[in-house]
Write a structure and sequence with these properties.
heterodimer; A: 6-stranded mixed β-sheet; 5-stranded antiparallel β-sheet; B: mainly beta; 4-stranded antiparallel β-sheet; globular
Chain lengths: 112, 114
């Protein structure tokens, strides 16, 4: 089964800097990868999707890369703000069927 | 607001009891997914329904069951509750017509078993 690894330690950065979060996966190569944001006690919110034939995707201050050779996705938030503080989850489709496997998430803290 | 609704927001009950969690997907979405999130397990997929039919099962215990009704709302039934069942339970609906399974999550039900 697919295993997903995200930085288990929280990422602490200064406001205005770029935050970079990592998502590594094993086993089969997924057709796409998704990133979600989750605030404490609330449901995850879909942010971005990147397909296997896309190297990079951007949405406002967010950028996602997808390296199928390294089996890795990087999630960048540029000009970070304290409001960006949250847990960020990556998710991949299971090998069969329309189910997602979620990583454990990385906590991002942006300090002013 | 994702458009997915869940009730109740909080539920406190005792071991051995049975509870029902309710979810309504976004208007037009036919799929409902249920997830359990506990501190040590992360977000775990439980079960999926599509237009009233069960489509996929994940790590769902035999004590748990679900159904989706003709109006597309779904209920997750948890019985013979144990302390370890305390968690956040989320439902999500999949965007209708989506090929990439973007999911929209409800606010969750926090279950506490004492």
């Amino acid at each position: 089964s697919q295993k997903i690894e995200q930085n288990s330690e929280a990422l602490n950065i200064q406001e205005g800097k770029t935050a970079t979060l990592t998502c590594n996966y094993t086993n089969y190569s997924p057709a796409y990868l998704q990133w979600y944001r989750q605030d404490p006690g609330r449901g995850p919110v879909f942010l971005l999707l990147i397909r296997e034939n896309e190297k990079e995707k951007r949405k406002e201050r967010l950028k996602v890369t997808f390296d199928t050779t390294l089996k890795q996705s990087l999630f960048h938030i540029t000009a970070s703000q304290p409001a960006d503080s949250a847990t960020y989850l990556c998710a991949l489709p299971m090998e069969y069927g329309n189910k997602l496997v979620f990583g454990a998430g990385t906590i991002l803290r942006v300090k002013s | 607001d994702s458009g997915v609704t869940q009730t109740p927001k909080h539920l406190i009950t005792a071991t051995g009891q049975r509870v029902t969690l309710r979810c309504s997907p976004r208007s037009g979405d036919l799929s409902v997914y249920w997830y359990q999130q506990s501190l040590d397990q992360g977000l775990q997929f439980l079960i999926q329904y599509y237009n009233g039919e069960e489509r996929a099962k994940g790590n769902i215990l035999e004590r748990f069951s679900a159904q989706q009704f003709p109006d597309l709302h779904s209920e997750l039934n948890l019985s013979s509750l144990e302390l370890g069942d305390s968690a956040l339970y989320f439902c999500a609906s999949r965007a209708a017509g989506s090929s990439y399974n973007e999911q929209f999550f409800g606010p969750g039900t926090r279950l506490t078993v004492l």
